[in-house]
Design brief:
With about 325 residues, this protein is α/β, with parallel strands linked by helices. Helices cover about 35% and strands about 15% of the residues. The protein has an eight-stranded parallel beta sheet with strand order 3-4-5-6-7-8-9-10. Strands 1-2 form a two-stranded antiparallel ribbon. Helix 1 packs parallel to helix 10 and helix 8 packs antiparallel against helix 11. The protein is globular and about 50 Å long.
Length: about 325
């Protein structure tokens, strides 16, 4: 088992690997992943030094949580910190974010994961007004007092939501889309989080695979893959798919990004390394559908720091090709 760099995950006080594993794909929305393939991915991640899994109660209607729970039951030595999410099991109305629902959702996640206390539960990109509700955060404090959860956090869509969450004294971490195609969080969110001692979990780090450099304008994704059915936000926030970038624009930008990769590094590894070295990032959570992807993601933690010409090139590419095409609210 490889030893990977560990960083404190904000106000949880717990150390997590700088590269974690996002497990949306083990539940649904990325095409079919068999149970045996899912366990192999989890095992490859752990063997690569990953000590942080991110999941949600709605990934495959709980399948992702269940697979993680079963895997960790057989690997008690793995020392994995598991963050899950709640809130998407009900219609997205602020009035559904209440203590009784929180308890019910927590009970289901605890059963799925096979634990008495959840390491971390994150509000799953709730309606924006939730962030200004004292009652919501009082309810989350109650979950901690009842030892249903050890800590709570938020997963957000916008920088404004992130800043509102960071101002809440009980929020341990903020999960936000951050990658070389989505730079706005660098301006205010990461500095504010560092100042407050709040962790940053970087999701969608490869822009739904664009930054892997594997796709062309003619690539066809499976019908049950969100990269087919959510390109314009038909099912959930458009920003979750290709970071909200029009696909053709993203493919062209990805081809340019590949030219920035240092000798011997892949496009995907370079993107992950870029995120890792942003001040304030606790962990980046790429997904993986194969053992090879899981190992490659983990290996990014050991890459040398990117030099200034690469960092300057990322900024120039973003300003020239992407800034104008990304919705201002992100």
């Amino acid at each position: 088992m490889i030893r990977m760099e560990q960083r404190v995950l904000g106000r949880t006080g717990r150390d997590v690997s700088v590269v974690g594993l996002g497990t949306w794909q083990l539940g649904a929305d990325w095409g079919d992943v068999t149970e045996s393939d899912a366990f192999a991915v989890l095992d490859a991640a752990v063997e690569s030094g990953v000590t942080f899994f991110d999941t949600a109660d709605v990934y495959g209607d709980g399948r992702s949580e269940q697979l993680i729970g079963r895997y960790l039951k057989d690997r008690p030595d793995a020392g994995v910190f598991v963050a899950t999410k709640m809130g998407r099991r009900a219609e997205q109305l602020p009035e559904n974010y209440v203590l009784d629902n929180f308890r019910a959702w927590n009970d289901r996640s605890r059963a799925n994961l096979g634990v008495d206390t959840l390491d971390l539960v994150q509000l799953h990109c709730p309606p924006t007004s939730v962030y200004t509700s004292d009652a919501v955060f009082d309810a989350l404090d109650t979950l901690v007092a009842e030892r249903r959860v050890a800590a709570y956090a938020v997963s957000v869509e916008t920088c404004a939501e992130a800043l509102a969450a960071i101002a809440r004294p009980g929020v341990a971490s903020v999960q936000i889309i951050l990658n070389p195609f989505r730079l706005k969080p660098l301006e205010e969110v990461l500095p504010a989080a560092r100042e407050a001692g709040v962790g940053i979990i970087a999701r969608v780090p490869l822009a739904s695979g664009l930054l892997s450099g594997k796709y062309t304008k003619d690539t066809v994704f499976a019908a049950d893959d969100h990269r087919t059915y959510n390109r314009h936000g038909e099912a959930f926030d458009q920003g979750e798919t290709f970071s909200g970038i029009e696909y053709g624009t993203g493919v062209a930008a990805a081809a340019e990004f590949a030219g920035l990769a240092p000798e011997g590094a892949t496009s995907a590894g370079t993107a992950l390394r870029w995120i890792i070295q942003q001040p304030g990032v606790s962990s980046v959570i790429p997904g993986a559908r194969s053992v090879e992807q899981a190992r490659a993601n983990g290996a990014a933690a050991a890459l040398p720091a990117l030099e200034q010409p690469v960092l300057d090139g990322v900024r120039e590419l973003y300003d020239r090709r992407l800034r104008a095409s990304i919705h201002h609210r992100w």
